[in-house]
Amino acid sequence: MSSAELTPSEAARWAARAGLPLPDDRHVAVTVTANHIHSVVAALRELDFGDTPPAGAFRAQEGKHDAAV
C-alpha cells in the first residue's frame, strides 16, 4: 500500500475482495479507521529497535532482583 490515504471506494473494494462486503453507510467509517491504523503502523515501522531481542527471548525469572533504590 502506498503512503496515499485510502478512499471510501477503495476500502469497499478491498473489503469485498476479502469476502467482507460493506453496506454503503459503513464505507467512510471503515476508511477512517483503516487510515488511522495505517498511520500508527507507519510510525511503528520508523522505530529503530537496534539490538532489541524479540519478546520470545525474554525470561522474567532470569532477571536481576535488586530492590536498592
Write down the secondary-structure element order: HH
Class inferred from helices and paired strands: mainly alpha
Count of individual beta strands: 0
Q: What is the mean predicted local confidence, pLDDT?
A: 86
Low-confidence stretches: none
Question: Helix coverage percent of residues?
Answer: 40-55%
- Strand residue content: under 5%
Largest sheet: none
Outline type: elongated
Gyration radius, rounded: 20 Å
Structure annotation, total helices: 2
Q: Distance between termini?
A: 48 Å
Written account of the structure:
This protein is mainly alpha-helical and 69 residues long. It has two helices and no strands. The protein has helices at residues 8-17, 27-45. Helix 1 crosses helix 2 (27-45). The longest helix is centred in the middle third of the chain and has 19 residues, at 27-45. The termini are far apart.
Annotation keywords:
single chain; 69 residues; mainly alpha; 2 helices
Topology, pairings included?
Elements: H1 8-17, H2 27-45
Task: Provide a brief overview of the structure.
With 69 residues, the protein is mostly helical.
